[in-house]
Amino acid sequence: MKTVIVACGSGVATSQTVASKVKKILNENGVKANVEAVDIKSLDQYIKTSHVYIAITKAKKEYDIPTLNGIAFLTGMGMKEETEKLISLLKS
Amino acid sequence: MSEVDLLHEELVFLDVDARKTEDLFLFVGEELEKRGYVKSTFTRAIIEREALYPTGLALERINIGIPHTDPMHVNTGFVAVVKNKYKLPFIHMGTNNQQILIDYFFILGIKDPADQVKLLQLLMEKFSNVEFIQGLQSNHEQHTLFSFIKNKFEE
């Protein structure tokens, strides 16, 4: 099963909110994946075992896995496009 | 805990006269500390965290800031609703330089991370609702604005 990682400054507020939204969306679409929220400082260690990174803070460096816009999942604005990208990444 | 319990009439601050965003945090932080909601480290923690991980959000109908920090700086959970006399600049979440002008700050003080998730979900749902935004903008007094938000949280 593929892993989706969501990161924010603390790993407790925004990232968990986004992670819970993403889990719900994947469920509704019948897509199975692990969705985890972490704090940005632990991102490097988690990214190696993840397939998609949903970013809430601006990245200080580039990661070699696909990165999606987490704010879209938080506010709902632009969420449809990010959802489509996420699902196609997880299905591929 | 229900999200509505985080709302307190004394934590609705309208017509704040801050020249800079930092002044607004200093003012609200002092009020929060005086009333026992936060520790003396709260304001500094908010300002520092905001510099690293900004929380401005340009939504469809309104620009908000949702500053928050770690539970260790908080005594009792709360949501403070703050409107300055004029809009203050703030950095948009996920960027380090995209400035937006904030209509309302919802300063979040959370003790339990599990509550924080529910609270953010609820806030985002409300902020995407046109009726909620209109109500925010048409209630100009502490008591009426508090009652309005409380009713909406209870829906």
> What is the correct CATH architecture of chain A?
3-Layer(aba) Sandwich
Q: Uncertain segments of chain B of ≥5 residues (pLDDT<50)?
A: none
The end-to-end distance of chain A, rounded to whole angstroms, is 12 Å
> How is the main sheet of chain A built?
4 strands, parallel
Helix/strand class of chain B: alpha/beta
Greatest interface and its residue counts? A-B, 22 and 24 residues
CATH class wording of chain A: Alpha Beta
Order of helices and strands of chain B: EHHEEEEEEHHH
How would you name the oligomeric state of the polypeptide chains in this document?
Answer: heterodimer
Task: Provide the CATH architecture of chain B.
Answer: 3-Layer(aba) Sandwich
- At the fold tier of CATH, the topology name of chain B is Mannitol-specific EII, Chain A
Q: What's the number of structural domains of chain B?
A: 1
Helix-strand layout with pairing:
The complex is a heterodimer of chains A (92) and B (155).
Chain A lengths: L2 E6 L5 H15 L5 E6 L3 H5 L4 E4 L11 E3 H6 L3 H13 L1
Parallel strand pairs in A: 1-2, 1-3, 3-4
Chain B lengths: L6 E10 L4 H14 L7 H11 L3 E3 L4 E3 L12 E7 L3 E4 L7 E4 L1 E6 L3 H15 L2 H9 L3 H13 L1
Parallel strand pairs in B: 1-4, 3-7
Antiparallel strand pairs in B: 2-3, 4-7, 5-6
What can you see in these coordinates?
The complex is a heterodimer of chains A (92) and B (155). Chain A is an alpha/beta fold and 92 residues long. Chain A has a single domain (3-91), classed as Rossmann fold. Chain A has helices at 14-28, 43-47, 70-75, 79-91; strands at 3-8, 34-39, 52-55, 67-69. The mean pLDDT of chain A is 92. Chain B has 155 residues and is an alpha/beta fold. Chain B has one domain: 3-Layer(aba) Sandwich (Mannitol-specific EII, Chain A). Chain B has five helices and seven strands, in the order βααββββββααα. In chain B, a hairpin with a 7-residue loop joins strand 5 (88-91) and strand 6. The longest helix of chain B has 15 residues, at 113-127. Chain B is globular, with a radius of gyration of 14 Å.
